[in-house]
């Protein structure tokens, strides 16, 4: 019985000892002085690709997980109504153009009438001084001249009015063209499509989201550090990230942001012991070069541990020396890249004697 008890105790001790040894193997190595650590998850800046105007989705040219380049066409909205509005605007421009030309012709007519009325008045005035023309006739010719001058002024005002109407019509055409351009949604930056939030045929309101785009050149991990560590931390300090999914790798990074407000404790804390419990949000950002080299491996949401250097004289321990995968991601290329085709054809131009120059500027002979 005694030997059985000893053997049992020895077995139990061996089991606990082995378990403790295995537990120690899986524990992270102790950090030397001058470093701090915390866990977090990788995040990437996200952009919502949304509509500017309400409308129906015609085509979605990308899928979830696709890499896109800046300026690539992502979504095409239905533009039948917008094209009809543009045609209506072009017709309005043509109508106002004709009115403008008519006003110029009317001005020429009124000027001719003024010349004739002035000649008649001058002739009557000369004859009146010699007594060959009654005074009433001279006054009638003077009144006719004044009326002709007023008609010229009115014709000049008509030209200005037609010019203003033409500018307004051209501005409406430009607005319709801009709406047509906005019906084609482009990628504001290079990145990866994360979510497809709508499907072709769906009708969205203004600001309706269609896609979510991740900027894979702006990836960071958010961690929280206590006051005693944040007080020593510098913006731009060296950091290391060890992903949980690939703990054999150590990724270099740097501190890019430290929150000015603490969290996890009351807003106003008076005692020192409580102040030391304050936690500050810190962003540890990966370099663009690393992200570019391993673009296809980068995934938002991956958890891991971030280590930051809080002392400039500290040396990184061996287990936190940079270690990256040997195989880099191939250069990200877009299949069948689509050029920006958001060019809208429309008239809104004036030919003949009244030409449009620049933004709605019109020249005419009616001065």
Oligomer: single chain
- Main sheet strand line-up: 1-8-11-10-9-12
Major β-sheet profile: 6 strands, antiparallel, barrel
In whole angstroms, how far apart are the ends?
127 Å
Output mean pLDDT.
Answer: 80
Q: Tell me the series of helices and strands, N- to C-terminal.
A: HEEEEHHEEEEHEEHEHEEE
Count up the domains.
Answer: 2
Poorly predicted tracts of residues: 333-341, 347-367
Shape: elongated
Just give the CATH class of the largest domain.
Mainly Beta
Structural classification:
alpha+beta
Short description:
With about 375 residues, this protein is of the alpha+beta class. The protein contains 6 helices and 14 strands. Helix 2 packs antiparallel against helix 3.
Written description of the protein model:
The protein has 367 residues and is of the alpha+beta class. The protein folds into two domains: 29-68 and 193-320, Elongation Factor Tu (Ef-tu), domain 3 (Beta Barrel); 80-171, Helix Hairpins (Orthogonal Bundle), CATH 1.10.287. It has six helices and 14 strands. The protein has helices at residues 2-26, 80-129, 135-182, 227-230, 272-275, 288-293; strands at 35-50, 55-60, 67-68, 73-77, 184-186, 191-196, 203-204, 209-226, 238-243, 251-263, 279-286, 303-309, 356-357, 361-362. The strands form three sheets. The protein has a six-stranded antiparallel beta barrel with strand order 1-8-11-10-9-12. Helix 2 packs antiparallel against helix 3 (135-182). The longest helix has 50 residues, at 80-129. The N and C termini lie far apart (127 Å). Residues 333-341 and 347-367 have low confidence and may be disordered.
């Amino acid at each position: 019985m005694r030997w059985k008890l000893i053997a049992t105790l020895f077995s139990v001790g061996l089991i606990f000892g082995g378990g403790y040894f295995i537990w120690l193997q899986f524990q992270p190595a102790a950090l030397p002085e001058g470093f701090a650590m915390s866990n977090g998850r990788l995040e990437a800046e996200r952009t919502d690709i949304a509509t500017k105007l309400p409308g129906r989705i015609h085509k979605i040219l990308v899928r979830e997980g696709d890499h896109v380049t800046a300026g690539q066409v992502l979504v095409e909205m239905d533009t039948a109504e917008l094209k009809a509005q543009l045609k209506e605007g072009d017709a309005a421009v043509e109508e106002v153009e004709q009115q403008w030309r008519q006003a110029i012709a009317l001005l020429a007519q009124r000027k001719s009438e003024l010349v004739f009325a002035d000649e008649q008045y001058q002739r009557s005035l000369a004859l009146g001084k010699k007594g060959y023309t009654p005074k009433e006739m001279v006054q009638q010719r003077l009144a006719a001249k004044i009326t002709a001058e007023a008609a010229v002024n009115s014709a000049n005002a008509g030209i200005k009015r037609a010019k203003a109407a033409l500018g307004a019509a051209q501005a409406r055409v430009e607005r319709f063209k801009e709406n047509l351009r906005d019906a084609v949604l482009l990628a504001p930056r290079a990145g990866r499509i994360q979510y497809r939030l709508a499907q072709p045929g769906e009708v969205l309101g203004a600001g309706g989201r269609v896609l979510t785009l991740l900027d894979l050149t702006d990836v960071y991990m958010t961690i929280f550090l206590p006051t005693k560590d944040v007080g020593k931390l510098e913006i731009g300090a060296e950091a290391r990230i060890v992903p949980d999914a690939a703990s054999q790798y150590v990724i270099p990074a740097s501190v890019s942001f430290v929150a000015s407000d603490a969290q996890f404790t009351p807003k106003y804390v008076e005692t020192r012991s409580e102040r030391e419990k304050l936690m500050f949000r810190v962003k540890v950002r990966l370099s663009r070069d690393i992200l570019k080299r391993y673009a296809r491996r980068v995934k938002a949401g991956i958890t891991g541990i971030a280590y930051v250097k809080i002392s400039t004289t500290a040396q990184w321990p061996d287990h936190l020396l940079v270690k990256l995968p040997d195989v880099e991601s191939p250069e990200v290329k877009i299949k069948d890249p689509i050029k920006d085709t958001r060019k809208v054809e429309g008239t809104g131009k004036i030919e003949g004697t009244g030409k449009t120059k620049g933004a709605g500027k019109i020249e005419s002979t009616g001065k």
